[in-house]
Amino acid sequence: MPVESSATIAAICYGLAAIAFALLALTSRGRDGPPGVPGLAVPAAASFLWAGILAMHALLRAGQEMAALAELGRNLVWVWFLWRNLRALRAKTESTDTLAFLGRILGGLGALAVISHAFALALPDSRFIYWIGAVFPALFAVAGMVLVEQFYRNSSAQERWGIKHLCLALGGIFVFDFYLFSEAMLFAAISQDGWIARGAVNALLVPLLWISLKRRANTDMQLAISHRMAFHSAALMGSGLYLMLMALAGYYIRFAGGEWGAILQTIFLFGAALVLLLAVFSSTVRAKLRVLLAKHFFRYRYDYREEWLRFTSMLTEGEPDAQVYDRSLQAMARLVDSPAAALWLKQESGAAQASYRRVAHWYFPELEGQLEAGHPFPIFLEARQWVLDLKDCKEQPDLLAEAKIPAWLLGCEKAWLVIPLLWHDNLSGFVVLAKSLSQPGMDWEINDLLKTAARQAAAHLAQAQAAEALTVARQFESFNRAAAFVVHDIKNLVAQLSLLLANAEKHKHKPAFQEDMLATIESSVARMNRMLLKLSDASESSDKSTVDMSAILHEVMQSKSAYSLKPELRIESPGMRVKAEREKLVRVIGHLVQNAIEATPYTGNVSVTLARTDDSAVLTVADSGAGMDADFIRERLFRPFASTKGTGMGIGAYECKEYVQELDGSIQVASTPGRGTVFVVRLPLIIESTP
Hints:
This protein has helices at 3-28, 41-60, 64-91, 100-122, 128-153, 157-187, 192-215, 227-256, 261-280, 283-297, 304-316, 324-335, 376-384, 390-395, 407-410, 444-507, 511-536, 549-559, 582-599, 630-635, 652-662, and strands at residues 341-349, 352-362, 370-372, 388-389, 415-423, 426-434, 545-548, 568-571, 577-580, 606-613, 616-623, 666-672, 676-684.
């Protein structure tokens, strides 16, 4: 681009910026916002002068010294504006101590910049030209970005509505300046295209400042600097200063390196960036930075709201009861930047005395041991409820009196703290933490934080143990329930075989009796084999298939052939099919028929009828036995382990109802004492579609 053309374009761009800032300054008069909070009038006026001087400098190609002074003045005014806003907001809270260190840095930067400009004016051929032309504008850009970041991050949602356009505009100005002047630091020359575009960029950002001016007119904001904000701000400022120092060093290497200068500069800058990345991802560096900020900027070391939210989140994240021990250890360790931890919990050992055993560790495999519940050390932890620093215990043996620390714990050089886990003031376990990456020792704040967290972790672990015990109890309950049904079936088989044996003396010579006896024994053996097969499975399967109701009833009648009172079977609608597990359905119907036979005298009768009603198979088992009253049917008939028979277990009727309902069927009972009982079972039929 020709020099005359570029100068004209630069003058136009900075002229537009001057007009925009002039209008902003005029509209800002009398709208300074809350008392004590500087308005935009002064920085807008300074930016108007800056843009006007740079426009004249571009048009006349003269006035380099005035342009440098305008640059300095504009930067100082904007930094002062942001700083005073922060000070005014902070004055409404507890104190301004937390911003004192940042204020001293900004004051020192401003003083150095003014002195350097004075030397540059006095000695125009010196190296100060490089500092005022590139280094100090880049430093002011870093300071501005840090102040804007602090200003926005710690505002509430309502306050951000009024300042977000201001922060976006100033952030854009400082980011563009940092890009432009950091490039100038590397190449010892300002990009001509970037310098020309700078004026237009500032002009485009002025409308955002005007929007913020309207919104902030009646806004009263308060600033609350959090630990996280201080950490990120310090890290951002430190990274910016480090990059600028490395850029200066790279420029010097290129200047003094001769022919190898460019190569050495590239290698140096790559190494500097690598060192910065290593520092950013280093847990030790981050931990030491947090401690440094906590000591010099905050009254308390921890942001308890943030720490508690993070601690609770770590305890409850993931699947329920999944790695609960590991999550608890990580949550405890990260409170004090400990790289490893181990957990001991109280374990019952049957008839033997309970003991504390290691149940989990987090990068602490070398620490392993066991303590009896009656050992003096856990008794001491339960009584005193102290968080023990093992270093203090080694240096002061009398601290624990007679409660000596076990040798396997005392001999571990990596071990640091012992934290008791108390549940209802009883010691449920303890946590051992490795030496911290950042904490040199214990104090009251760490002690209180760990004791409080330990209470929460103990409650969480107790809840997890209770849930685990409940799961085991439910598994045993399921097993016991299955065993009860099996025992009930065995009882019925024993009753059939006993009856068969009792009739053998009278009828053993009869061919018909012999045939029935063999059939009954065969059926009983087959049922016992099926029960054994189901008991061998880990869980009772429910493989439903299509079964023929007529075949089921014939099988049940065959199993009852040994009884003197033989049930009468009537099948009114043959060929009906239902979806069920065959063995279970045989067991359910067999129980209903068995109960009817046992409740009916030899002179009575038992009938089994199979009919169809709409899309349901209706099975009716009727007897003329003793019957039941309404109270028994309502309150006890289908309750498990409730039976009127001396040898009964009270399982059969309960199983019948549960399985019929599982098949989407229903079971109804009608009974009159002295007249008999009728059970009606309805099961949904499988409807075969016709082509």
